[in-house]
Amino acid sequence: MKTLLLSILTVGLALVACQKYEPTLGPAPSAEDAQFTMTVSAANENIIELSASNPNIQCVWDFGNGTKAQGANVTATYPYAGTYTIKLTVFAKGGSRSSSQQVTIANDDLGLLNNPFYTMLTGGVNGPGYKTWIVDSAAAGHMGVGPDPESALGATPEWWAAGPGEKPGCGLYNDQYVFHLNAFKFDMITNGDIYLHNSLATSFPGSFQNLGDFTAPFDDQLNESWLLTEGAENTITISGNAFMGFFTGPKVYRILSITDSTMHLQYGHHAGGLKWYLKLKTL
Question: Whole-model pTM above 0.85?
Answer without folding.
Answer: no
